[in-house]
Design brief:
It contains 9 helices and 15 strands. It has 392 residues and is of the alpha+beta class. The chain has a single domain, classed as 4-Layer Sandwich (Deoxyribonuclease I, Chain A). Strands 1, 2, 3, 4, 5, 14 and 15 form a 7-stranded mixed β-sheet that branches. Strands 6-9-10-11-13-12 form a 6-stranded mixed β-sheet, with no helix packed on it. Strands 7-8 form a two-stranded antiparallel ribbon. Helix 5 packs across helix 6. The protein is globular. The protein starts with a helix and ends with a helix.
Length: 392
Amino acid sequence: MNLRLIWILLLAVTLIWGCKTDKTPFSAVDDSDPHGEEQLLAEFKADEGAGVVKVMSRNVYIGTDVDLVLEAEDINSVPMLVQIAYQLLQSTDFSSRAVALAEEISKTRPHLIGLQEMSKFYIQSPGDMADGGMTPATDLFLDFFEILMEAIEAKGLNYEMAAVVKNANVELPMFTGVDSLGNYTFDDIRIEDHDVILVRSDVNYSNPVAVRYDSMLVVDPSIGLVIPRGYVKVNAQVGQISLVFANTHIEAAPDIDLRMAQVTQLLDAFNDETLPVIIVGDFNSPATTGTSYNHVLSEGYTDTWIMNPLTYNSNGYTFGHQSHLRNAGPEGFMRSRIDFVFAGPQGDPTIGEGFVLGDEKRDKTASGLWPSDHAGVVTKLTYSVAAKLASN
């Protein structure tokens, strides 16, 4: 790695680190609520009627710009780019974001939640990858699972992790400095990415399934660097309604064929399903023009947002805040709808109110961070219940 490149990248680190030191208190006093959304959310939360199923899809954001590293043109720049990504991860402060995410759950109390980009980070210091070593980093230094579940419990909420699929498991060297002899020093950073299903404590579930897609993104075949994706599903009993709930994160890289292969494998898993199916997730295929988005519709699934009886948020954009999460407002940044709640053709539910969460200034953390680079989606579906059961 040449010295000029190091100084350029160190400057980038300094600029990103400036985000971390910005502790200006955030005030939502001027954040109006012209559509009375907070009251509508309270009514949504309270609705526990017969046949009602409330679900959420939430990409919690890995907390850093991984594309900065994965798209590196010069492999020698990777350790410094990992350092930049590491500093950004610290500045996006998942502990405070988890509190905001737990507040979204508290406001809506969905029966079933699909979470994407639930991550664990490990470090090895000093690292050995730069010298050709193969020992994996095992010292856990950031665990989204533990932090988020503690934030949820602190709200007095009772949710359980019902299913988890491990997707990417990537380790890379990180530049840490120069020793007294003028040699570069490195740590190794490893990240595990997961998709998760949470179930509310009064929802019975069974048959948790975790599947990795057969098709995956190959970043660097020379070193075997690949990015797997997958899905999780459970059978759930919400009151008198038995259903199948699934959650996924489809590949984001601009490879339409890869996304189509993953979506096709997902839908094929439910071809013979007789129970109602609800699939949530980040599909990385924009409504209403995306190829794989339209493939889901062609298989008989309903994009519940289109049927939303609330019409004040017509575009329903769910992506994307800036990677540092400090853009002042959503205007100009929330620009596409790629996070969905799809209702399967079984059961023919009545589609109720749907909300985008994490796109209003009042949703920010106390220090002014958005909860994620995505917004969440929460939706109510009502399935028919036999009269004799509804009266019980």
